[in-house]
Amino acid sequence: MIAVGLAPFINASIIFQLLSAVIPHLEELTEQGEVGQQKIQQYTRYLTVPLAFVQGIGMVFFINYLLGGAVIDTSIGTLLLSAFAMTVGAVLLMWFGELITEHGIANGISILIFSSIVAGMTQQVSVSLAASSSLVGIILFMLVIIV
């Protein structure tokens, strides 16, 4: 469900950062301080939804490519439903990030990205250790933990 992850939100943020240098109205909003930033953040949320939908459609074809064939049916109904489910997942992650930020823990989106990276690293380390059960693998694992 969250195959596209936070990529649509990050892309929307980058798009609005670039557009704020080109479009005078957005440039005025950036200069207004907190009120302007909230408005740009709202626009970013609005742009995230269609970006997530388009990336969800692309993700269906990418998953089919990775798995070597038509694993997911690409009929229009299945394609739209899959893209909708992935859009909901992306919006849900965006909402979780904003809840973390609202509770004053830190920047919620950054924490979610960091936790995704750490989860991927631990998975890679465990796969590496399973592949090489030698003493060298254990020493490398200890070095990764220390560093």
Distance between the termini: 34 Å
- Write the element-wise H/E pattern from the N-terminal end onward: HHHHHH
Gyration radius, rounded: 20 Å
**Beta strand %:** under 5%
Low-pLDDT sequence parts: none
Helix fraction, binned, reads over 70%
- Total individual domains: 2
Give the total of beta strands. 0
State the helix count. 6
Shape: flat
Average residue pLDDT: 85
Indicate the structural class.
mainly alpha
Biggest β-sheet description: none
Can you give a write-up of this model?
With 147 residues, the chain is mainly alpha-helical. The chain has 2 domains: 105 residues, no CATH class; 41 residues. The protein has 6 helices and no strands. The chain is flat, with a radius of gyration of 20 Å. The two termini are 34 Å apart. The model has no long low-confidence stretch (mean pLDDT 85).
Question: What is the strand and helix layout of this fold?
Answer:
Elements: H1 7-19, H2 24-31, H3 34-66, H4 76-102, H5 108-131, H6 135-146
Helix pairs in contact: 1-3, 2-3, 3-4, 4-5
How would you briefly describe this protein structure?
The protein is an all-alpha fold and 147 residues long. The protein has helices spanning 7-19, 24-31, 34-66, 76-102, 108-131, 135-146.
List key phrases describing it:
single chain, 6 helices, 80% helix, 0% strand
